[in-house]
Amino acid sequence: MRTSFYNKLRDVFYQFLYPRSCVACSEIISSPTDPNTPFCRDCFAKVRRIVGPTCFICNVPFVSGAATSHSPEQRCADCRESPPSFEKAVTPFFYDPPISTAICKFKYEKQTYLADFFVRLIVESLANLNVDRVMAVPLHPHRLRHREFNQSLLLAKGIAKTLSMPLSIDALIRTRETVPQVGLSKKEREENIKGAFDVAHPSEVKGQRILLVDDVYTTGATLKEGARILMQEGAKTVIAFAPARMVLQ
Hints:
This protein has helices at residues 2-17, 41-44, 66-69, 77-81, 99-108, 114-126, 141-147, 151-163, 186-193, 221-232; strands at residues 88-90, 93-94, 133-136, 167-168, 172-174, 197-199, 209-213, 216-217, 237-241, 244-245. The chain is α/β, with parallel strands linked by helices. It folds into 2 domains: 2-44, no CATH class; 66-245, Rossmann fold (3-Layer(aba) Sandwich), CATH 3.40.50.2020.
């Protein structure tokens, strides 16, 4: 009890000396919900988890519950017409503020400390997954040198550590440099990423149930292509994962 009291007193003292700003709205976090949460109370309250009826495969939200009322394993039109190579996608949160703001600062402004926050936020969504190892969507070496880190790999490292699972760092590699997917249509994204991956270490893939991690699920083109190559090289199954997904209108 005394230890808990002193820990709280220490947190209050540090907050007084080194006040933190909300990563979403830049306001000083005067009374944080959690000392490790980078959002103020108002912004944290706006975080939207994906709940309700979703596609059984890619987890895209359905407009109403009618789609799954008689068929809990209902698939969306995209997954029916062009089934992905992954078994399912896990995407816990909507990609909108404040989550989207935090991901952009993590990815483009090198605020890498946010990886730990995202892992804490998403780990309960991964607790019951039956997987053998974790992999990240790789960056091309040129992009990696420019950005200096792979945001998906930072997430994958945190997930693997938290779930006590092996992490494969370079089993899946990017062999072709692609233009950024931002701003491309669904078809353009698929063409852009096609043939961009390869497996460098087949022994880490064959017969394995793999959790493939990306930062954002938009159309799923990147995760689908990564899963296709992994399955082609003998993976038993692939679960696609991204902390947040963009729901296209």
